[in-house]
Design goal:
alpha/beta, two-stranded parallel sheet, elongated
């Protein structure tokens, strides 16, 4: 009497191994920044990958650092050259570094395409004053068809 045939799991294991390797290799290709406030970012055709760094986000009514509110836009005066709450937060984060690179620390600013340039300039100046001189502006990659 013959025994019924069993399941051959070798080919199934091969397929899953290939799938796991494929997912591992392709998972690190794209840097995704969390846009929690749905800020409509400007479009860009740059092909260079994003660099992870400290994130300053300008929303409709507040300035956030790594998702935590540090300043309200209503409290910022036209004549101000820097933003107090942002300056304090950046200073605290800078103090945690044992050594500041000569070129300064990295910061990425996420601001909507309709953000007032004067406000953006104040945010950038505050970052530079606090030794965050490697300023990057977050953009959405423009998808080209064809």
């Amino acid at each position: 009497m013959k025994k019924p045939g069993g399941l051959n799991l070798v080919s199934l294991m091969d397929i899953f191994t290939i799938l796991v390797f494929f997912l591992m290799v392709n998972s690190s290709d794209v840097k995704v920044m969390q846009n929690t406030a749905d800020v409509p970012l400007p479009k860009s055709t740059a092909q260079q990958a994003a660099v992870e760094s400290l994130t300053v986000q300008i929303t409709g009514n507040a300035i956030l650092v790594q998702g935590s509110e540090v300043a309200r836009l209503e409290g910022i005066e036209i004549g101000d050259t820097y933003i107090t709450g942002l300056s304090e937060e950046l200073s605290w984060r800078r103090s945690r570094w044992s050594e500041i690179p000569e070129e300064g620390l990295d910061v990425t600013i996420m601001a909507g395409r309709d953000t007032d340039y004067r406000l953006l300039r104040k945010v950038m100046q505050t970052c530079v004053d606090e030794q965050y001189r490697q300023v990057r502006l977050a953009v959405e990659r423009e998808v080209r068809n064809g």
